[in-house]
Amino acid sequence: MEHFQHAMVGFVDHYGYAGLFVALLLGNIGAPVGSELVLPAAGGLTATGHLSSLWLTVLVAVAGELAGGSLGYAIGRFGGVPLFEKYGKYVHVTHERLAVVHRFFERWGTFAIFVCRFLPVIRGIVAFPAGIAEMNLAMFYAWTFAGSTIFCTVMIVIGYQAGGHLDVVVPLIRKAGLIVLAAAIVIVAAIVLVMRRRRAAAAP
Q1: Which of 77, 144, 157, 181 could covalently link to 131 via disulfide, CB atoms 3.0 to 4.6 Å apart?
Q2: Please, are residues 105 and 133 in contact by the beta-carbon 8 Å criterion?
Q3: How many domains does the chain have?
Q4: What is the pLDDT of residue 187?
């Protein structure tokens, strides 16, 4: 699996933005791409001039995640549980992993989509159970976009700042994802609290 992840970094290096888009798309339909490695590597490639623009790199990465999430949602919605019971093993979508995501949904509701965008492995399969559950598409895209934008931006910027020293930074990347998750949840919770207070103040 690690060999495949490093091969995906080489794929991005060779094919540029098209490679980055495909890598993130595959990573969001269960392929073991390792976005925690690919994203900072893309940032490093941007810093060294292999990719032209930091914000274009972020935009392409988020677009790839949304495209993969859309495909995963459609597969879950129209294929259902039997499809994953039969073929899920080929993309590392096991019954146990789907059960973990389902428990997230039961606890957090649609907000689980946002939370799962920061969790290794789980972030790549969360669209499947969302489709199976026929989650509201507007909420699915809103939380996917919010989580992917934060996650991709932070990881790419980390790689961009590291430049040619990714070998030192990569071991810390997975921990960084959890830190970003904690910070993002605090920010979102604060926004929700402010909005509720404003609504309460505006109510007669």
Answers
A1: 77
A2: yes
A3: 1
A4: 64
